[in-house]
């Protein structure tokens, strides 16, 4: 479906077994140069296992994986000079300060870095993330430990960033700073980012393309736009005394319901324009058009584990949590 | 190379105080031993007498070494080397585990290995760190002996024998870290192996061949399967043989090769023996702070009980081995042995008394761990949900102390059981068989002090709990159990609880020291229980 230009990461039929448990079950993942790639899935789907294999921390049971054209297990050391990573759970040395830990990790990544520039950037990032580097490791909260990994990853340029739920434990303010910094490294340096997350808003804000993982395989993927085409835009308006019969018979209108004084239906996203004239002739009031969200897509793949039946759950999830993103449109 | 150097410096930075304390203690102990022995056992004649007594009643040799003549230098080596070997061994196993398995368990290894350090540089840096520390131990030991006025060439041999034993155990610790999924498990197994090495050479030394004058012995085969035994085989001062040190180096190399072979295949954080998965539902008895303490400590208690049982078995089998070797002994030994036994003390009784002291250390360590667990719970943050439930802080502390007391009793019970089983099986009918139970009870008061005292530290100065706990035990062991052989001042030795443990002889038992210690333990415990109510439960 997509023409692969320069795949920075490519895995083919990747398997990883822990005893009888199949953590990865034929994972095919492609990440192109210069993109922010969202890697979505709930806990236990295999996100961390995939990232650990890409970092050469774990060895695949079968299948192939290449990172920047190299073998992640065999060429780990050379690769790690070009790759920065953030783990989801950061643990620090109790008697080393946060600043010491950042210096240590940076030196290990590339010992030949220019000291003055490095210090300036470290200082800048500490200020940006409102981080006190002089406290001892044991004294930091979860969010502050996470900041150590964030700063260590961002303080030096890398070609590829492997981020495993990088904002866990950060407050919304810091999440915004993080989002800005990730955009900066991609735009300024042309870096590639693989961002594993279960926080949809984060991925939606940042990612160009997403892959959705479930039980160790990729179940859906593509650009956000392409994915949105597969989803439905939710349209609702005040019921008043509008006759909805004309809408109900349109083939692109799905699941029309009337509840709490509002009419609500889903329209195929790439054909929304076809329904708008009809809404105009009906003279609807209080029209809300909510663009398709990843959440809806996500729940479609996982809905059956959350609340069967799947499509219903998907629609509900889409409305309640995404209302603030809804765009009001006059007919 | 950059990464290796950076990681090595980081290890130095993390361990600077620990390494300094270990190296200085080992070096000071060497110096101190020479000084004390020179003062207490002044001339060759006195020392020859002591050695003749020791070879006649080889039970004593288990805690000392291999007699190689009455000169001050070889006598010092005989008295102190095995203990130096244990210290060097423990320093290395803890060091190996701290920088490998503990790092993987905490997830820090993950962050490091995700940098250009990769999977191998951390191992390389740990080996380098260990090698340098062992050279420091060797030099400190040699300097300690030389400063005491012993022959420099022999002191160098003795020093590097200590370091080589340590280096072998660095390999053992690294290997244990490959197999066990937790640092607690890896530390437990590898320090148990240090103790086994100590006891194996004790067995070999006690059952060796005595020379005609009764002051020199050749070790039996069990000493040859112990790294500490290899160090003794250098015959420092009398033989100055370097080649036996190839054996600990070879053991290190074998361990390192296996470690590399395993690491080439395994994921970061994985281990050969996978951690078992737990129960989905708690057992019905897990419903309070005491049962939680038991659930948390059950593995450790079982481990210490096995250690006690093994010590007991060793006591019995060693007793019969010594009894049966009496016929092949030279004249002088036979005469001495007759004299000892005429005083009403059997060989077995001597052995039981000596080795049950060691079991008493095991019991104290087991109890101490229950108290240290309190601090670990507090730091990990798992204490908070317990104390914020219906469990008051007093009951929380009381539960762990109660469990500690139970585990102390269990370890001694298993020791006595082991000794009773092996003595009965060997057909020993002396009164020592019945005495094992009494001797086991004798060790309880000192062990209980090691519950009460660390508990008070935990209440008053939480951050010091873990280092102070082990330091108190270490000092107690040196002063109380090795103080006698080092010829330490009685006032100094009186500071150790182990000095006051009741001793069972054929005449009976003097329990005055025991009652005093029980009283002191009770008072300190009561203080801790009251004071803990005024103390915050936090992670600071």
- Strands of the widest sheet of chain B, in order across it, are 1-2
Q: What proportion strand of chain B? A: under 5%
Mean pLDDT of chain B: 89
Task: Characterize the biggest β-sheet of chain B.
Answer: 2 strands, antiparallel
Helix content of chain A: 25-40%
Figure out the total of helices of chain B.
22
Mean pLDDT of chain A: 83
Biggest sheet statistics of chain A: 6 strands, mixed
Please state how the strands of the largest beta sheet of chain A are arranged side by side: 5-6-7-3-8-9
Task: Tell me the series of helices and strands of chain B, N- to C-terminal.
Answer: HHHHHHHHHEEHHHHHHHHHHHHH
Query: Which structural class should the secondary elements of chain B be placed in?
Result: mainly alpha
Name the overall outline of chain B: globular
Largest interface: A-B, 34 and 31 residues
DSSP, total strands of chain A:
14
**Rough shape of chain A?**
elongated
Low-confidence stretches of chain A: 305-331
Distance between the termini of chain B: 37 Å
Number of E-type strands of chain B: 2
Explain this structure.
The complex is a heterodimer of chains A (331) and B (540). Chain A is α/β, with parallel strands linked by helices and 331 residues long. Chain A contains twelve helices and 14 strands. In chain A, helix 3 runs parallel beside helix 5 (142-154) and helix 11 packs across helix 12 (310-322). Chain A is elongated, with a radius of gyration of 23 Å. The two termini of chain A are 36 Å apart. Chain B has 540 residues and is an all-alpha fold. Chain B is 73% helix and 1% strand. In chain B, strand 1 (209-210) and strand 2 form a beta hairpin. In chain B, helix 18 (444-460) packs parallel to helix 22. The model of chain B has no long low-confidence stretch (mean pLDDT 89). Chains A and B meet through helix 2 and helix 3 of A and helix 1 and helix 6 of B.
């Amino acid at each position: 479906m997509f023409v692969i230009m320069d795949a920075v990461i490519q895995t083919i039929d990747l398997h990883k077994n822990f005893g009888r448990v199949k953590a990865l079950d034929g994972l095919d993942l492609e990440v192109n140069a210069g993109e922010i790639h969202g890697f979505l899935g709930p806990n236990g789907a295999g996100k961390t296992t995939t990232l650990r294999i890409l970092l050469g921390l774990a060895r695949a049971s079968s299948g192939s994986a290449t990172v920047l054209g190299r073998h992640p297990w065999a060429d780990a050391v050379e690769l790690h000079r070009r790759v920065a990573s953030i783990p989801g759970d950061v643990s620090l040395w109790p008697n080393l300060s946060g600043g010491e830990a950042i210096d240590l990790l940076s030196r290990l990544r590339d010992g030949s870095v220019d000291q003055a520039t490095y210090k300036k950037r470290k200082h800048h990032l500490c200020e940006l993330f409102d981080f006190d580097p002089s406290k001892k490791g044991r004294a930091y909260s979860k969010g502050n430990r996470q900041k150590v990994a964030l700063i260590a990853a961002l303080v030096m340029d890398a070609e590829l960033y492997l981020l495993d739920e990088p904002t866990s434990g950060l407050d919304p303010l810091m999440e915004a700073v993080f989002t800005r910094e990730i955009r900066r490294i991609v735009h300024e340096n042309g870096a590639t980012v693989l961002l594993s997350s279960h926080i949809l808003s984060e991925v939606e804000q940042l990612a160009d393309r997403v892959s959705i993982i479930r039980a160790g395989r990729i179940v859906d993927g593509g650009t956000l736009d392409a994915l949105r085409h597969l989803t439905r835009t939710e349209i609702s308006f005040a019921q008043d005394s509008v006759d909805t019969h004309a809408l109900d018979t349109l083939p692109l209108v799905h699941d029309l319901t009337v509840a709490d004084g509002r009419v609500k239906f889903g329209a195929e996203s790439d054909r929304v324009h076809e329904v708008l004239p009809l809404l105009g002739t009906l003279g609807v009031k209080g029209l809300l058009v909510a663009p398709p969200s990843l959440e809806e897509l996500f729940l479609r793949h996982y809905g059956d584990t959350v609340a069967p039946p799947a499509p219903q759950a998907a629609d509900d999830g889409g409305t309640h949590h995404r209302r603030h993103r809804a765009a009001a449109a006059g007919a | 190379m950059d990464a290796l150097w950076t990681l090595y410096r980081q290890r130095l930075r993390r361990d600077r105080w620990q390494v300094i304390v270990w190296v200085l203690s080992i070096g000071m102990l060497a110096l101190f031993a020479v000084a004390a022995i020179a003062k207490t056992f002044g001339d060759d004649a006195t020392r020859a007498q002591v050695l003749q007594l020791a070879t006649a009643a080889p039970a004593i040799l288990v805690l000392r070494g291999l007699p190689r003549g009455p000169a001050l230098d070889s006598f010092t080596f005989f008295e102190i080397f095995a203990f130096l070997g244990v210290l060097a061994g423990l320093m290395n196993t803890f060091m190996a585990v701290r920088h490998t398995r503990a790092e993987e368990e905490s997830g820090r290894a993950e962050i490091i290995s995700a940098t250009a350090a990769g999977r191998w540089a951390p191992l390389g840096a740990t080996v380098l760190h260990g090698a340098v520390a062992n050279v420091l131990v060797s030099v400190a030991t040699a300097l300690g002996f030389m400063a005491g006025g012993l022959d420099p060439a022999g002191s160098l041999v003795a020093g590097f024998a200590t370091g080589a034993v340590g280096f072998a155990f660095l390999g053992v610790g690294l290997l244990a870290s490959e197999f066990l999924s937790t640092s607690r498990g890896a530390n437990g197994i590898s320090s148990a192996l240090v103790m086994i090495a100590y006891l194996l050479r004790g067995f070999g030394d006690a059952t060796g061949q005595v020379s005609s004058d009764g002051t020199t012995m050749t070790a039996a085969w069990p000493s040859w399967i112990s790294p500490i035994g290899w160090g003794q085989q250098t015959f420092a001062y009398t033989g100055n043989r370097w080649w036996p040190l190839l054996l600990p180096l070879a053991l290190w190399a074998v361990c390192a090769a296996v470690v590399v072979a395993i690491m080439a295949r395994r994921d970061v954080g994985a281990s050969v023996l996978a951690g078992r998965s737990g129960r989905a539902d708690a057992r019905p008895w897990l419903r309070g702070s005491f049962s939680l303490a038991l659930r948390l400590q059950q593995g450790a208690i079982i481990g210490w009980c096995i250690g006690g049982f093994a010590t007991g078995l060793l006591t019995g089998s060693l007793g019969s081995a010594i009894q049966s070797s009496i016929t092949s002994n030279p004249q002088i030994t036979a005469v001495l042995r007759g004299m000892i036994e005429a005083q009403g003390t059997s060989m077995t009784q001597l052995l039981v008394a000596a080795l049950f002291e060691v079991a008493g250390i095991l019991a104290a360590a087991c109890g101490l761990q229950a108290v240290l667990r309190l601090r670990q719970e507090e730091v990990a943050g798992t204490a908070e949900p317990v104390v914020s439930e219906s469990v008051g802080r007093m009951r929380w502390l009381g539960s762990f102390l109660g469990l500690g007391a139970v585990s102390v009793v269990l370890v001694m019970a298993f020791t006595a059981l082991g000794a009773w089983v092996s003595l009965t099986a060997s057909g020993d009918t002396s009164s020592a068989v019945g005495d094992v139970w009494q001797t086991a009870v004798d060790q309880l008061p000192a062990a209980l002090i090691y519950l009460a005292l660390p508990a008070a530290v935990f209440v008053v100065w939480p951050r010091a709990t873990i280092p102070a706990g082990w330091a108190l035990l270490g000092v107690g062991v040196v002063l109380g159990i090795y103080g006698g052989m080092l010829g330490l001042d009685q006032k100094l030795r009186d500071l150790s609880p182990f000095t006051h443990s009741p001793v069972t002889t054929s005449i009976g038992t003097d329990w005055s020291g025991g009652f005093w210690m029980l009283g002191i333990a009770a008072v300190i415990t009561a203080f801790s229980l009251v004071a803990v109510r005024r103390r915050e439960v936090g992670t600071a």
